Amino acid sequence: MSSLLKLDTEGYKALMKRYIETRDEQSLYEIEQASKLFIKNSILPDEIVNMHIQSLKDLYPNLSEDIQYSMNFLLEAMIAYGIAHQEYQQLREKQSELKSEISVAASMQETLLETKKPTIDGLDIGVISVPAHQMNGDYHHFVKGRDGSLGIAIADVIGKGIPAALCMSMIKYAMDSYPEDAMTPKAILANMNRVVERNVDPSMFITMFYAQYLPSDHTLRYASAGHEPGFYYNSSQDTFEELTTKGLVLGVTPDTTYPQYELKIESNDMVILLTDGVTECRDGERFIERQEVLDVIKRYAHLPVQKIVDQTFKYFERLQDFELRDDFTLLILRREV
Amino acid sequence: MKPQSCVNIKKEWDIVAARQLGRDIARKIGFGTVDQARIATTISELSRNIYLYADHGQICFEVIDTFDNKGLCIIAIDVGPGIEDIGQVLEDGYSTSGGLGAGLPGVKRLMDEFDIHSEVGKGTRIKTIKWLR
């Protein structure tokens, strides 16, 4: 195979001459390779036509004028393609810039929203949160109170991507500004509601579930602001119950109040908190049923809870052809003996 | 700089006249076929903008022939609504006519130098140069 074609008129002419004389496949292969190089080096279609015209003139000095004119005509026809190609190149560059900017923002967000899964005697905790795109519009947060209680917030901005992620960062700051303990779920939601009402565009909706677990008397207190209902797994009866709650999504009116509920947690009972990215998984065109989530959790129930949430995620990720449509957050607590 | 030759743009026909004059001048300066075609496309874009959006305007040509540089300067002047956000019209993919027009970003690519002044409610003046290499 001859060395690479030089990307100039001389090279083009030589190759074209050889092709006209031999009509061999190799010349065609070489011009195909050259054509890729033209694109890589931003040689525009009109310039290629021009190379062709020059080559023709050199090879056939007696070429009829009509043919020459027709080639000039072709060159004019190529001009707009050249401009479009340049625009396309520039848009591609812009896109890759944007992508890298977003990935920087995503890693900043990850650091910002980072929350450590606490270790609490007698309590097994598992959590997984995976964004559909680069940035996460779901949020979860653990707070360990001085009284030994564990606070858990799980929230979802309706929508996904960058706007949702920006919104979540604000929620995180608001949460951080509260004193760590002595805050009941209903008080925290009432507070968050005021923050969201004041600071967030009315077209954005945020739902939040706040739970507080008291290891001393194995009680779960919780309240919800329009959030996807969680589940309680009753181990002795081997049944799941929905954690039904009342409470408006955050930010609708400034003085919303949130009823608080209490639940006794027995040994091996589980509390399952999630966002709608879990329950609204899709199998092809079909939305899954909430029951399916429970079936999957049950299938892995013999494992440590971190394994349960990981496996459940893997199951639904696969079901959706590895393409999440919404941010996915699943959090499970299990009381050990 | 030699005196200007100008073409008034009022009808779509005038675009062709401007292209013709510009191409003739470009050929005389010594531009090759590719550059002639690019200059003609530039003239089209500039005069179509006048034809579509302004009340009336002109496309003027100046031959630049100094000691070290030779080139063609095209100036498009119109009396019209002007452009409010110049940054936006110079952005790829923005075209008020919604068509596949190369628009001003296309002109910037086809030419070597580009300058634009616009006053809302008064008009726009675009000056662009192609150098002979």
UniProtKB/TrEMBL annotation, chain A:
Q: Which SMART domains match?
A: PP2C_SIG, PP2Cc
Residue ranges of domain PPM-type phosphatase in the record: 124-335
Q: What superkingdom heads the lineage?
A: Bacteria
Higher taxonomy: Bacteria, Bacillati, Bacillota, Bacilli, Bacillales
Give the transmembrane region(s).
none
Keyword Hydrolase in the entry? The reply is yes
Q: Which InterPro entries match?
A: Bact_Sigma-Reg, KaiA/RbsU_helical_domain_sf, PPM-type-like_dom_sf, PPM-type_phosphatase-like_dom, PSer_Pase_RsbU_N
Listed A to Z, the keywords are: Hydrolase
GO terms of molecular function = phosphatase activity
Q: What is this protein called?
A: Sigma-B regulation protein RsbU (Phosphoserine phosphatase)
TrEMBL record, chain B:
Gene encoding it? rsbT
Q: Which UniProt keywords apply?
A: Kinase, Transferase
List, alphabetically, the SMART domains matched.
HATPase_c
| Name of the protein described by the UniProt record | Anti-sigma regulatory factor
Q: Which CDD domains match?
A: HATPase_RsbT-like
Query: Do you know which Pfam families this protein is assigned to?
Result: HATPase_c (PF02518)
Q: Which domain of life is it from?
A: Bacteria
What Enzyme Commission number(s) apply to this enzyme? 2.7.11.1
Transmembrane regions: none
Origin species? Virgibacillus dokdonensis
Where do the Histidine kinase/HSP90-like ATPase domain residues begin and end? 34-133
GO function term, MF aspect, one: protein serine/threonine kinase activity
